[in-house]
Amino acid sequence: MPALPSPAARDLAALVRERAGADPVRLGLVLGSGLGHIAEQVEGPAIPYTELPGFPHAGVSGHNPRLHVGLWEGARIAVLGGRSHFYESGNPAAMRLPLELLAALGARAVLLTNAAGSLRPDMPTGSVMLLSDHINLAGTNPLIGEATDDRFVPLTDAHDPGLRARLRDAAAAEGVHLHEGVYAWWSGPSFETPAEIRMIRTLGADAVGMSTVPEVILARFLGLRVAALSAVTNMAAGLSSEAISHEHTKATAPLAAAKIERVLRRALRDGL
Ligand code: HPA
Description:
The protein is of the alpha/beta class and 272 residues long. It contains seven helices and nine strands, in the order H-E-E-E-E-H-H-E-E-H-E-H-E-H-E-H. A five-stranded mixed β-barrel has the order 5-8-7-6-9.
């Protein structure tokens, strides 16, 4: 049995419905670094996280910490314009209440986006990668402390094959080259060393980042179908002479963000 949205999430959903209307949303969307502009295109109210009691602080520059609820490409969706990362608070479950809220608003699926470093020479800066699977290297889990047997969430096919097929089709229809691969989550906020990148390459990682994995686990716990897209903002440490920095991430994210936007628009138009 998936966990039900908590009373806190149900209260928040009532608050959001007062502002944004009672119709259920079809899908939740979580925007990563440099992708926040997508939220501005949703036709509907934007509610700052500061007006949503219990919401985490999402204070990383390049994020837009507002919940947008409304129509995009004819689909009623809820968009989290910014996420809270594990490294901001030390709490791997920081995104639990926002995801519970998406479920309480009616979402049955959630799409996650992030900025990531690439480990593959054929997947340069500006590429988009659909996550086929992930590796949790952060040494923690958002379900630690959860008291019920619901915590034993299976993660085989955690990255939903049906959603992935829809995203693949949408990318093909848009002429966007969609890479697929394994995303490794390390806590950050420091970037990796070249030795760590060599290590995770041998472990099967194709991209590396500081988010998304706890959200995938939480989404599955809540019974939400989930898929995730990475915007490749740099080659991972040691793989190019390109400098790695948060400024660089923000500067290069728009290259892939434009492609992600086209894929998402098409997928929604085609009924995702
Ligand atoms: N490492 C970790 N997180 C990232 C990177 C990276 O190289 N690029 C963007 N987010």
